[in-house]
Design brief:
The complex is a heterodimer. By secondary structure, chain A is mainly beta. Chain A is built from two helices and 19 strands. In chain A, β9 and β10 form a beta hairpin. The longest helix of chain B is centred in the first third of the chain and has 38 residues. In chain B, 14% of the residues lie in helices and 38% in strands. Chain B is mostly beta strands. Chain B has four domains: 41 residues; 179 residues, Immunoglobulin-like, CATH 2.60.40; 90 residues, Immunoglobulins (Immunoglobulin-like), CATH 2.60.40.10; 44 residues, no CATH class. In chain B, strands 25, 27, 28, 30, 31, 32 and 33 form a seven-stranded mixed sheet that branches. The chains are: A mainly beta, B mainly beta. At the A-B interface, α1, β4, β7 and β9 of A face α1, β19, β21, α2 and α4 of B.
Chain lengths: 287, 455
Amino acid sequence: MKKLFILFLLCFIPSISFASEIFFSTDKNVFFQNEEFLAQVFLNTENITINALEGIVAFPAEFLELKEIRDGNSSVNFWIERPQSVAKGEVSFSGITAGGFSGPKIFLFGMVFQTKKMGNSSITFKNAQVLQNDGIGTKLSAKMIPFSFSISSKTTSDTKSGIPVIVDSDIPENFSPSVGSDPAIFDGKYFLVFATQDKGSGIDHYEIREELNSEFIIAESPYLLQNQKLDEKIFVKAVDKNGNERIVVIYPPNWQPWYKNNWIFGILILIILFVSYVVRKFYGKKF
Amino acid sequence: MAGHSRYNVTNKRAGIKNFLNKIFLTFLIFISGVMFFTFAYADLTSTSFQLENPINIIQGGESSSSSFQYLSSTGQLTTGQSSSSSFSQNVGFLYFPTATSPVVTATSGDSQVSLSWTPSTGILANITSYELGTSTSSGSGFTYVSVGGVFNTIKTSLTNGTPYFFKIRSYAAGLLLSESAEVSAVPTSEGEIPPPPPPGGGGGGGGVTPPQTGVMFSGRAYPLSKVNILKDGQLALSTISGPDSNFTATLGGLSSGDYTFSVYSEDKNGLRSTSFVFQVFITSGVTTNIGGIFIAPTIAIDKSEVKKGDNIAVFGQSSPSSQVVINVNSDPEFFESTNSDASGAYLYNFDTSVLALGRHSTKSKALKSGEISNFSASIGFLVGTKNVLAEAMEKVSKCDLNEDSRCNLVDFSIAAFWYKRQLSQAFIPREIKYLNGDGKVDLVDFSIMAYYWTG
């Protein structure tokens, strides 16, 4: 009777329900030593539209070495903190998607690990937060599902057999950098903001050239503009991890095409007057 | 004596145990009985009429004939609404479930078309399944097949070069609630140049030149309104809808991959609609058609506080000559209906006599040609003892940190600058006005920005 009663109670104890699940996906969970594998991070939104998320991936540094982070084709539009190793055995991330997303398997980013010594361990999440796309940032409970793995005593020579090769010949997506200013940052000086995506290998870095004859320099958004007069074209280059490049040109507010430049017109008028004077002086008598 | 007493105690314990056992078994029998009566009885049918779940006391059902529709309800004696924090029940003949129309994406392949659609959102109903309709004629001849509760399917065994038209219907427990606009596609073998798009239905792929990787959008907004399309959060293109509010736009130069598109419009008063957001996988070398986008109406009210018993005017713009349903979120909820005029403008004077004193909110949605939009944004108002005129609606009420009437990457960068930092005294008032006002910039503030994003 007691067992029946406990069974009855168990049936009616409310189970903890989660509004979303964050989990890893790999092609297997038993590896050789020195083998590389790809662990992708996905989110199941459980039919709720999510627009912001953050968290930390914690991995055992004694068993795994982080070789690469892949965020190409991520469903996150704008990273507040791009997935990066911030401490030994930790990768932190935070980002938003305008308007949100929902689905059972939303791709966030991937990590390539190389196994080290033999043993059993797991990759886990810490402090994961997902927020609903409701205009007030309602926090939703997130079930953090770890990934358990085993590393055998054997060593493989084909270390990268499990890593999908990224074939990416496409240049990064088109984008429109904007010039902004705000008294709260950069002492109110003009800055440039930019972001784009690469659906294949992911964005590697950005470069900026402010004047026609200067060199491209590596930059991050927001970028404090050197030319605060905003009268020169600005070139922004997005480079993906396969080396494909897209360059976009920004015409800041004070930039003018040459035919609208009064100085050029003034010089042209002076040249015309000078030529007229010379013609009159030397050939005037003949005409 | 002591032994007798012990015997009595033991006997009493056994009696109590026996009594509890009986109560427990009675309870189990009762639960089993309820479940039996709930699920055991069959539907009643005739040639022209069907009554589902005739004595079902837990869940309702739907019955219909050519001239009659019956939505059975749970057992409650009076009309009205019962609710709790996790449950609400609408009883009687006051309420009819509806659902938003799915937006359908069609991508041509070799002898096949890949279709996906946005989830249909049920109002007073939960969508449980979808049907795919296929036709070779625009507007007629659709043959429907159930595809279950999924959001994508592949229609195979099609003839290359033939234009096909597709629709999606959404169902709640067998009840048809909404239907999408049709979207077309022309299956094409690899390397073959598809024929010109079929008339109507938003086109079907390339033309005389090989198709590029891109997307063709079509749908309804407001007459002659600006329609903005964001690609992964950045403004990718804008177009102007026609006098009939219909719009089409093509975005090219895309790569193969997952994209998030947001579509919103601005009405004649400059008010912005809510964004219609959907994720699409774009296939290389193919133009994907996304049809049936129905932008939600804009909405405004004339009073921020209304004296109980006076009218509050709810107005905005939608597609011309469409039915606009206005929902007043109260206890109970109210659904009122009006029609938009030839310019798409609508107005409804809601009598607040039926509302209790306190805060309420209202929102609207539009119905036209069998398509149903999402709800608009929700606006709050107070039912009180005096009338207070509403201030002009701001174009962007939140997120606009640099106060340029937009919410975009500049605002994101300003917020990112203060992320997890102590705010300056100069920035605190803006954080209060445009973010959540807790004196810091964290993920909640970015979530607010993502919601109000305009690109």
